[in-house]
Amino acid sequence: MAEVNTNSDSLQYLHGDLDLKILKGRGFEIPSDTYVTVLLGDINLARTRTVVYNSGSPEWNEHFQIPLAHPVFKPELRFNLQYNDYINNTKSIGTTSVSVQQIVTGEAISHWFPCSGKQMKPDAAIFIEVKFTNCEDTPLYQYGIASDPDNFGVQDCRFPVRKGGSVTLYQDAHVPDSVLPEIKLQDGKVFEHEKCWEDMCHAILEAEKVVYIVGWSIYHKVKLVREPTRPLPSAGNLNLGDLLKHKSKQGVRVLLLLWNDVV
């Protein structure tokens, strides 16, 4: 937990990993479709699955691992109990909280937290387990992937580390020949400037098992190759969206990961 002074006010940051379990509830006089949202100030950190059966003692058994680098404008981590009514309107029916000052001690917290709300019985509560690890106490943040030699690579990735991969550096999405200066490398070699979008198009067309695209945003109508420097297969003239659908129909697994940040 660090402090940054801004306009003479002390602004605190919660910086580290939050291991959070939302296990079960009791004492709720509510209908079905209950779930819990987790907020730090106005920032929504997590949401449990929806329990779809009518029960005053729902069990979520959800486990979240949440990396944090968030300003703390309010002194508690808030848990809102909600449900969706028959026309899918969200209704908030109860709330509980855990003190940030208690969380940052790093001690394991595990007990029933009383809930307040109009549809709560006197013993209404949610069973929560919380454990915060400061970034300064996390070897991964201090030393990177070298801190865990037994599990080389970035943790919790969708795909495991594999040998034989490569990284290609590009100046831009597309640069005509002879425009960029010659870059000399060691041993008398010269860096070869490639065509980024043209290489991407060929890679997608030649994919046999999976196409995985990660980006801030993806504009599916873009045409990757407009000035081809080598022959393209027939599908190479499609825009990106149609090209991905074309590969999917061939049995290739197509995955997109958009950051979807609020900007």
From TrEMBL:
Record-annotated C2 domain positions: 1-113
PROSITE patterns cross-referenced by the UniProt entry: C2 (PS50004)
Transmembrane portions of the chain: none
Coiled coil: none
Signal peptide: none
Phylogenetic classification of the source organism: Eukaryota, Viridiplantae, Streptophyta, Embryophyta, Tracheophyta
Gene3D superfamilies found in the cross-reference section: C2 domain (2.60.40.150)
Keyword terms, alphabetized: Lipid metabolism, Repeat
Any GO CC annotation of this UniProt entry: plasma membrane
Pfam families given in the database record: C2
GO terms for MF: phospholipase D activity
Organism domain of life: Eukaryota
Name the record gives this protein: C2 domain-containing protein
InterPro entries referenced in this protein's UniProt entry, alphabetically: C2_dom (IPR000008), C2_domain_sf (IPR035892), PLipase_D_fam (IPR015679)
